[in-house]
## 1
Amino acid sequence: MSNQIITEISVDLDNRDKNTALFRIFLAVPVLIFLSSFAAFADDAMGWIGGFLVLPVVLSLLFRNVYPSYVLAFNKAFLELDNRVTAYLLVLTDDYPSIEANQKVRLTYPEIDGGRKLSPWMPLVKWFLAIPLFLLGLIYAIYLLALTLIAWFTVVTKGYYPADKAEEVVKVIAYWNRLYGYAVLLITDEYPSFSLS
């Protein structure tokens, strides 16, 4: 089993709803408000994390060498919700993002319990080590936006999502999920790959 988050997104390629794709950003406002409510009470220093529980994980890894299961469950559910909203906004699916888990977007986490321990000191340096990954991720994000613009135009005019664009967009989302798993959620000590594959 991989020591990284595995991302599976079921993309709707054919028979797309042109009308909802055209006004997707406006239709997503309610679920975006719901998603942003998790970060609304965070202070400025931690606000960029966006709703994930990080400090309890860092403290429990440093002092107890344990990843709290309830924090893991919350962070996993929050990242899956974020991915469902992202898939909807990026026109990968016409299904309005549910606030409950569904089969369109699934994330598989590495096994944390069962003998594999996380290094207790790594949370102190992971953010620093992840700087090159974040910088490359920004380039990948620009690539994702360009692909999404082309795909959005195709969906609105022709009613289908190009398969090659969908594959690349999902790879970029998976890259960011692996990066979050390493640097923000701290669920693995394995350094993520720089590639999209």
## 2
Amino acid sequence: MTDGPESQKRALRAELRERRRIRTATEREREAAAITQHLVDLASDLGSRSIAAYLSTPEEPGTRDFLSWACGQGIRVLLPVSRADGLLDWAPYDGEQEDEDLMGMPTPTTELLGPIAINDVDLILVPAASVDRSGMRLGWGRGYFDKTLGSMENCPPVYAVIFDDELVDSVPSERHDQRVDGVVTPSGIVALQP
């Protein structure tokens, strides 16, 4: 086995999955409340009227309370639905029923929009395993968000939602990996520069 970026990524992802798995329910609740407030602040500061985001799973930093808030404020929320070809479709989120896409990720049950629906949003929130201080994002290895962000002509601000210990000095990267503009963690909002 080589020690190239792909094997380094696999090892780091395994470590990060384990760290997330052993977080206590109390830690998760406290961190989710802080992240929600910071996401509200970010969306408010940017004057966001349309957001592309994702429904967090139980081990991810929580986005659900924020998405409920956004829907209640009349902010249009689009959520990703993975496709077999490696692209993402998008669906409006109404804060109600959920289903699972082909990758087992939670998705809305509303109408499916095509991949270009994301072009009309003014903030994108993405999941990440880790992000470094230059904004390089380490995803979970499927490449959906890298393909989406890499294909956008006029990309709005992109923020990854991570735990505090997942903002690091450097992450292994490859040519196709995409940077983010900042991160939202339980401690706050951090803008990042390449």
## 3
Amino acid sequence: MNTNKDNPPAIRVVLADDHDLVRSGIKALLGMIKGVEVIAEARDGGELVTLVDSLRPAVVMTDISMPGMDGIAAISQIHARHPEVRLLVLSMYDTVDFVKRAVASGACGYLMKDAPPFELEQALRSVMATGSYFSPAIAQRLLQPSEPTVDDELTHRQVEILRLIAQGKASKEIAYDLGLSPKTVDVHRARIMERLQINDIAGLTRYAVRKGLVKP
């Protein structure tokens, strides 16, 4: 006779990545792990937050750079609403800046997309058992000195505006998206340039890419 101990409940996972092929590959790998079930998939942060609100998974595995609401913003919202959900980042970015921003927002683990498949299971088991997992390469980087994060240098609103600037949007479009006036957006842009000591849009875009606000 089977007992609950013999057959523990499956680890319910929601997976988020804006690349369908990447997401399908990760889902296939997760499907090979005993006791793990991918219950839903999201293509962006907004969709991810909605799915977590309705499904209450045990674990969220999410990319950082996604269109619309990015992974960092989604992690922050999910952590605030559902602190019991384990939030594991699966990213191609390994800079200290990315990792610290993710952790500050509520992530409990960070795994590289080029990690060997066995590490995916190791990360899942670890966040469920101990509450955290950082791949060896990431743990090593966290011990190194780092430059200020984008959140150290800019306000939350400025980060939002910088991301949209780097996506090629004009002041009027940004104003519409954020419910601001174009003049207010222009003032923020000037302050962003002043704080970062960057004098053109191309420079702002390069900074946003380096900090992971937009994809290259």
